[in-house]
Every structure is written in C-alpha cells, then in structure tokens.
Amino acid sequence: MRAAGDLVARVQMARGMRIAEAKAYVAEKLSVSVSELTDPVIMTEVRQDLQIGQIMPLPGCAKGIEAKFRLSEVLELDINCVNRFKDRTAI
Amino acid sequence: MGTILTRYGDGTPVEMSADDIRRDLEEGTADAADRGNIPALDKAELDHLLDIFSSPHRFVGVEPGREVVLTYDGSPIKMLRAQVNVDRLQCLQIYEKLLGADTLEMGHMDYSFKPIKPIVTYEQPLLEQVLSVTTAPVFYGAMPNLGLYSQPDGPFPNPSELIPRGEIEAALESYEAAVEDAVNDIVYVSSAMYESGADAIILDTVGAAGDADFLAGLKATEILREKYPGICIELGMAGEFVLGMHGEMEWEGARLAGMYPHEQVKLAEKAGVTVFGPVCNTNTSESTPWNMARAITFMKACCEAATIPVHVNMGMGVGGMTVNDHPPLDVASRASKAMVEICRLDGL
Predict the structure, then answer these.
(1) Residue B72 — pLDDT band, cuts 50, 70, 90?
(2) I need a surface site. Which of A55, B32, B263, B301 has the fewest CB within 10 A?
(3) What pLDDT score was predicted for residue B325?
C-alpha cells in the first residue's frame, strides 16, 4: 500500500502473471515506469490522483471499498467484493 | 578477510571464516541436489551467496527493480500471539496502514478448516466488514490439518495407533476416509468465504500430515476451481518433502509421497492453484549458509518448473530462516535477498 505491491499482487492473483509480467501490466495501466512502482513518493501521488487508496488518505479521498471500485476500473480486473457490493446494492 | 558473523539454524550467533561459509554453502546445495535430484547451485550463484554473507551491514536488500510481492501467514493470529488486544478487523487495518502490507490474510485462531466449518457463519460477516474498510487483497486462510480427523480428535481410527499394531489396511482406510471429510470441509468453508467476497483462499501448511493431507489440498482445489472459475487459490506447503504416511496416495496418476517442490508445483498447477507456496525446512544444527544454500537450491528448481506465480515461504524455520520467534534481521534480510535474486521468484 505504500507503493504498488497490492496492485501487483492483485494482477498475479487475477491473471496468474509472474512478477515481471505483472509489474509491466500495472505500470502500463497506471502510466508509470516499472521502476516507479516501488517508489512510495511517486506512488502516493499516483494513487491519490487515481483515487485507488493510500496509506493516509486526505479527507474526501476514496478509501476502503470505494478505492477498490476505482482499482477494478483502472487495472481492468474483476474484484470479488466489488462485484458482490454491486449485486447487493443493485448498482 | 576476518571472520563473518552468521548464525546456526536455531538462531545462535556464530563467527565463521569465508572458507567455512563457502564449504557450508557447497554442502547445503549438494544436499538438496542429491535429495531432490535437481541441479546444485553453480559457482557464480555460490559466489553471490558468499558476497551476501560477507556484507558488513546488519540489514541488506535486493537491487532496485527486483522487489517482489509479500503475502502474510495468519496475520491476526500473530497479533493474538503477541497479546496485542485488537479484533481481526483492526489487525488487518494495522497490517495495511501501519505495516504497509501488500496483501492481508484473515484467519481464525483455530487455523484449520474442520473447526471453522461450524462457525463459518460468524466468519463471513466479519470478512464482509473487513472488505469494506480495506483496499489490499484479503485472503482467507486455514489448514487442511488431517490430524484432526483421527481419534481422539476426529471420527476415524488413528493410523499412528493402528500401524504399530500391524493393522496396515485399517490405517490406510482411515487416511482415505479422512481425505474425503477434509475435502468436504475445505470446500464448504472456502465456498462460504469466497461467496462473502474474499479475494483469495489460502490452503496453508498442506502436507503437514503427509501424502493424504496433500491429496486433500489438491482435490479441494480442483473442486473449487471448477465451482468458481475466477477464484484465486494459494496453496502453501508444510515442508520440502511430502511424507509418505499413507505411501500409496496418488493424484492424476502421480504418487504423492516423496515429492519435492519442483514436482509439487506441477500438480498444484494441474489442480488449478493460482499461487504456489513451496517450503524448505531449516535444520537447527546446521549453519545459516548451509540452510540457505539448501533452501535456494530447492526453490530455484521449483521456480524454473513453475508457470504460475511462486511465493516462497520465508519465516520462522523455513526458507533458510532461523527457528526462533524473533527472526534476526541479519538472517531474514540475507535470506530474502538471496532467495529473490537467485530464484527469480514472484513473491515471499
């Protein structure tokens, strides 16, 4: 969550990608370089801009499952609890 | 060069010469190569390990760009063990927000599928609340733990009592019956937690009770994969070698007893596992260089055989780490760096 480890993990989990491929996928979706994925300063800005969750969200920032809705769109991944939320709330 | 400070497998500090470390590295990799019938580490890899051990720094890290994903083993249980009095929801928030965890794992105090089954309806609402306030992927984990299916803890006669009495057939039948019950429990609990929104299911410490335990994990995975095609299943092992407690258990024509990580991962892939967690146990009487070279030899062969992500188990007593509740950072960081840089793995 300080950088992009949770995002790379999601891609491994959802797409079964090995580490290099998963990093490249996330970097492309976030429009950053692979080396920037592990930089907490750059990634905090990126995460704030995209509203995909951060360690210390400012008031009004997406957090928790709100951020996962954004993540699902940005990474083009199905997220189980997001789909379940949509079903439960008739979104 | 003077002596180098390292440790035995139990964590006891020891000073060794570079020549002694080199000798232990060579013996450790030779042991794994001999047991697993896999290639030993080559000279360049052993040189790299010696460089890592020779670093004068307390803490070392991987080269930039080599960072990997971290998963965690029963996070809330660790909080309880340390007597930090927070509920599991707060525990996972602490892991995500204060420890910067890449992934979260919710597990029950009694970390086995069998005891969770009757209380799973109490686990589901908590998971649903956790998922609403966290962003990192949330795994739900437990162990097949076939030991809980034999008397006096379970319904079936205890093979450990039957075998010494020469009742071999009865012991084999007991293991076979236990597998079926365990598969039902794993599928029941995993289905409930997945339908409550879990990002992944972890079958942890698979094979702890031998080949029957491993078979239960594979069969349950196969059923879950067919039932939920999009499910993420992480299967983590108990040791580097599948014990032949039954001895004749097979899955898809492959005998399970005696399998090492590079063979286990192929069955895991076939069953539908998404992420594989291989293990190599630590020998407390040998040095960390010996243990690390041995573990890396097994894990390298596994990573090369795998087509799915591999998250090597690194923690107390596994992956070259010391058997101690407080893993020394000098060993933890060296083992992690060496494992990532030599094995080309996907996570720890």
Answers:
(1) confident
(2) A55
(3) 86
Residue B117 belongs to a domain: yes
- The parent domain of residue A47 ranges over 5-89
B205-234 burial, b for 16+ CB within 10 Å, e for fewer?
Answer: bbbbbbbbbbbbbbbbbbbbbeebeebbbb
Paired with B276 in beta bridges are B235, B310
User: How many domains does chain A fold into?
Assistant: 1
Residues in chain A closer than 8 A to B194 (CB atoms): 80
Query: How high is the mean pLDDT of chain A?
Result: 95
- Is B67 within a domain? yes
Whether the per-residue pLDDT at B73 is higher than 90: the answer is no
The 3-state DSSP class for residue B115 equals helix
- How far apart (Å, rounded) are the C-alpha atoms in residues B339 and A14? 24
Distance from CA of B106 to the nearest CA of A (A): 15
- Let me know: does B194 contact B228? Beta carbons within 8 Å: yes
Give the pair of three-digit tokens for residue B223: 């059923």
Question: Which CATH number does the domain housing residue B134 bear?
Answer: 3.20.20
A chain contacts of residue B64, beta-carbon cutoff 8 Å = 35, 38
Confidence at B61, pLDDT banded by 50, 70, 90: very high
Whether chain B has a CB inside 8 Å of the CB on A58: the answer is no
Kindly give, in sequence order, each residue whose CB lies less than 8 Å from that of residue A30, ignoring residues fewer than 6 positions away.
A4, A7, A37, A46, A50, A74
Q: In a 3-state reduction of DSSP, which class is residue B265?
A: helix
Instruction: Identify whether the C-beta of residue B199 lies closer than 8 Å to the C-beta of residue A13.
Output: yes
Residue owning tokens 């992927």: B137
Q: What is the pLDDT of residue B1?
A: 61
CB atoms within 10 A of CB B174: 26
- CB contact under 8 Å between A19 and B309, yes or no, is yes
State the residue for tokens 């909080």. Answer: B79
Tens digits of residue pLDDT in B230-288: 999 999 999 999 999 999 999 999 999 999 999 999 999 999 999 999 999 999 999 99
| Cβ separation A9–B102 shorter than 8 A | yes
Share of chain B above pLDDT 70, in %: 100
- CA B202 from chain centre, in angstroms, equals 10
Residue at B348 is within a domain: no
